[in-house]
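Predict the holo structure. Ligand: FE2/S2 (inorganic) cluster.
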Amino acid sequence: MSDPVDVTVDTDDESESVRIHDDDGEVEAGGTTVRFSFSGTGDDDRGADDGDDGPSPDSKEPTDGGDDPRRIADLDSVPTDSTLVFEARDGRRGVNCILHRSGDAVAAWRNSCPHQPEVPLDPGRGAIVRGDRLVCHKHGAQFDREGGVCTHGPCAGDALDSIAVSVRDGDVYLTDERFERAERR
Ligand code: FES
């Protein structure tokens, strides 16, 4: 998803709106939970998912990683004071992820705060990094920037959903077996 969208669920007693930055998540209202999953990109974003991913034009360009669809970026281009957003894809399913560097080590996680999964740590301008912590811009949860564990805040003890990546010859690659390729936004 290139732009956030607003999703509103109305019940007899309640109306709940959330701003969606990710490709999937859930909205709760009146005791009802509605799960959604978007496929497609940009103007082609559609509404709530019924469990079928549906057709996707897969219109995004692959990363600038030459022939290897798992290459995400040059190691040097991965920020130490922020995050780089990419999408891990498996067929038509895409997961919005963030990549962060600490020295020569890299780590990646799903771009989703454990406190409120619809909230991305990186809303598009880079996640906040303070010292050795990533900080959620919404309620200030702090995450260890190596392990992704929340050390302070409303989701203390929870952890970011880790995505496996590795460095080879100065480039960062997606090595998580749940996905087949990486795409940059
Ligand atoms: S949504 Fe991240 S701390 Fe609340």
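The two ends are 9 Å apart (CA to CA). Confidence is low (pLDDT under 50) at residues 40-64.
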